[in-house]
Amino acid sequence: GEILLLRRSERVGSYRGRWAGVSGYIEKTPDEQAMVEIEEETSLRGETTSLINKKEVLLWQ
Predict the structure, then answer these.
(1) pTM for the complete prediction?
(2) What is the pLDDT of residue 60?
(3) Residue 4 half-sphere exposure, CB side, CA atoms within 13 Å?
């Protein structure tokens, strides 16, 4: 499998320049919000993206 990691901008409020997954605040259902965040972060539209798997949320520090 593959994992999408994006380098955070130097202009954001936290974790500047660090590598991270796509993230954001949930305003819709988790699946809908994931598609919104992917589009915002990568400019990929729904026609070119699809959910291939769904797992429990993984949190770590």
Answers:
(1) 0.48
(2) 65
(3) 10
Residue 6 C-alpha from the chain's centroid:
9
Domain residue limits, the chain: 6-48
Is the CB of residue 41 less than 8 Å from the CB of residue 6? yes
Q: Report how far residue 51's alpha carbon sits from residue 28's, in angstroms, rounded to the nearest whole number.
A: 16
The letter for the amino acid at 46 is G
Segment 13-56, tens digit of pLDDT: 888 999 988 777 778 887 888 888 888 888 877 677 777 777 77
CA 39-45-46 angle, to 5 degrees, is 105
Three-class SS of 2-61: CCCCEECCCCCCCCCCCEECCCCCCCCCHHHHHHHHHHHHHCCCHHHCCCCCCCCCCCCC
